[in-house]
Amino acid sequence: MKHAENEILELFISESFDLLKAWESFSLELERNQDPGIFAELFRLAHSLKGFGLNAGLKEISKLVHQVEEFVLALRDQKIPCDLQAVDILLDFKDLLDSWIYEIRYDKSYVSDYKGLSSRISDMLLEASEPEVPETAAPAILLVDRRDQFTQLVKCLLDYKYEVILAHTDSDALEKFSALNPVLIITEIRAANINGVKFIQDVRKESRVPILAYSKLFANEFAKAKAAGANATLQKEDNVSQITIAVEKLLQAK
Fold first, then answer.
1. Are residues 119 and 91 in the same domain?
2. Are residues 197 and 100 in the same domain?
3. The domain that contains 41 carries what CATH number?
4. pLDDT 10s digit of each residue in the chain, 254 long?
5. Can you tell me the distance from the alpha carbon of 3 to that of 161, in angstroms, rounded to the nearest whole number?
6. Residues 145, 90 share a domain
7. Are the C-beta atoms of residues 247 and 214 closer than 8 Å to each other?
8. Sequence-separated (6 or more) residues with CB below 8 Å from residue 35
């Protein structure tokens, strides 16, 4: 694959397989059960796909997924009937992305026509449109990690629901923690200008806020992070979407 040097593109391809498999399952479930949790999962999956697409430079995919996010929210809020026509759109979206990913994997230009699907979604959203209600402030999550593409990807995956504040040094992290009172902290265990274990110890002197500690290179220090007060640890090389799942579990356990 001529894009082999692009790790984020490869990540998009590998992650999308599981995300789209789950998407199909939840979409079919809507025919029988329209529980709010299903819409929440569909939105999370769409947001993850959009985040991977944006970071891989796949603008057309990200644009369409953003439109699908709005469609899922309209279904959730009952602005659009969740009928067979709506489910067909969700499944057609899955089929289109499957086709795009196949073309990308084999170095094609993913030129599959999405305008027809986009137009169908636009028409339904237009019929359902109404004045927006101002949103309340999103809960803050403090993300302590180096300045790199992975950090931006994690931020992108979480900002569908949270205000993600970045800190790239221990001192900056402590200042922002004191000022923001975040609902959760995610920290690298060890990186340039970041000593995650010490940072966790400093936070624990004054707060029981949930902390997720992760690392790509220093998994052997997970025990130290847990001893310092981290509630959970995660290997960075695991499925990246597991970060959002770990965040939700920690917040639900508060």
1. yes
2. no
3. 1.20.120.160
4. 444 346 777 878 888 988 999 999 999 999 888 999 999 999 999 999 988 888 777 888 888 999 999 999 999 999 999 999 999 999 999 999 998 888 887 766 655 578 889 999 999 988 877 555 555 678 999 999 999 888 888 998 898 889 999 999 999 999 999 998 899 999 999 998 999 999 999 999 999 999 999 998 887 899 999 999 999 999 987 667 788 889 999 999 87
5. 31
6. no
7. no
8. none
Show contacts of 71-78: CB within 8 Å, 24+ apart: 71/121, 71/124, 71/125, 72/39, 72/42, 72/43, 72/46, 73/39, 73/43, 74/124, 74/125, 74/128, 75/30, 75/39, 76/36, 76/39, 76/40, 76/43
pTM for this prediction? 0.67
What's the Rg (C-alpha) of the chain? 20
Instruction: Say how many domains are in the chain.
Output: 2
Range of the domain at 175: 140-252
Sheet holding 211-215, edge to edge: 163-167, 140-144, 184-188, 211-215, 232-235
Contacts of 31 (CB under 8 A, 6+ apart): 84, 87
